[in-house]
Amino acid sequence: MNDLENYFHNNDKRLIHKWQHYFEIYDKHFHPFRNQEVSILELGVSHGGSLQMWRDYFGEKAKIYGVDINPACKELEEGGIEIFIGSQEDRNFLRELKTKIPPVDILIDDGGHTMKQQIYTFEELYDHVAINGIYLCEDTHTSYWRGFGGGYKRKGTFMEYSKNLIDHLNAWHSEQKNKLDVTPFTRSTYALHFYDSILVIEKRPITQPYHLTTGMPVIKRYRPKVSKVKKLSLKLKRKLNI
Question: Of residues 21, 47, 113, 211, which has the active-site annotation?
């Protein structure tokens, strides 16, 4: 049992509501940031218990920010914790938020969990996560719940949206540059981790990948027989650079 899980099960402070398997995922990705001068942003304050948990986990050097649509949540501010009131579906609010807080090392989207909220938050705030930071969206299972705008393979869900990020991560290798080109996301993202109900995105400056060989060849390269038609087609493609 890790420290976050211990805190949760022994919590006698404000209410925290989490799925049991989240704690292993949190600790795996958040552990390197502990006891550092880090900024943490959590969307979705509720009763404020998780903000207290992050404060305890990351240590006294951490600055914790919270966002919630409920004005009453402003009363939950305490030392090292600052709370902003606004809606995740309001792009202007999210843009203004970036002018009020520094780039964050970790962003946790535990807000309203609707498709627009999750997509808008990613689109507006991903660039406000530090270059070596973590973006975590939880409760992504709502992409399968009709009441939140979800449904299996339903167009417009956050899960279907985030599947496209896999393509952008690999855009360096696309031969169809007019359809899949290298983007700022490609250049700033190291990895996507899909878990049950959670997507974790690791940021890191990325340059174009390259490959190398070492050692001596010991066998002849195998070349399968290719029909004359296919040979001509390949020759034409090389000539046209497609």
Answer: 113
Distance CA 72, CA 64 (A): 18
Q: Tell me how far apart the alpha carbons of residues 163 and 170 are, in angstroms, rounded to a whole number.
A: 12
Q: Measured between alpha carbons, how far is 217 from 228 in angstroms, rounded to an integer?
A: 29
Burial profile 51-75: b = 16 or more Cβ within 10 angstroms, e = fewer: bbbbbebbeeebbbbbbbbeeebee
Return all residues near 34 (Cβ < 8 A) that are at least 6 apart: 57, 58, 59
- For the chain, how far is it from start to end, CA to CA, in angstroms? 53
d(CA 140, CA 125): 17
Active site residue 29: no
Q: What are phi and psi of 202, to 5 degrees?
A: -95, 125
CATH code: domain 3-210+217-240 is 3.40.50.150
**Count of residues making up the chain:** 242
Tell me the C-alpha distance between 71 and 130, whole Å.
28
What's the pLDDT score for residue 61?
96
Question: In terms of pTM, does the model score above 0.85?
Answer: yes
Distance CA 98, CA 162 (A): 22
Q: Could you give the maximum distance between any two Cα atoms of the chain, in Å?
A: 76
Mean pLDDT of residues grouped by 10 in the chain (242 residues)? 96 97 98 97 98 97 98 97 97 98 98 97 98 98 97 97 97 89 97 98 96 90 70 66 61
Integer Cα distance of 18 and 46 in angstroms: 12
Q: Classify the phi-psi angles of 159: left when phi > 0, otherwise alpha if psi is within -120 to 50, otherwise beta.
A: alpha
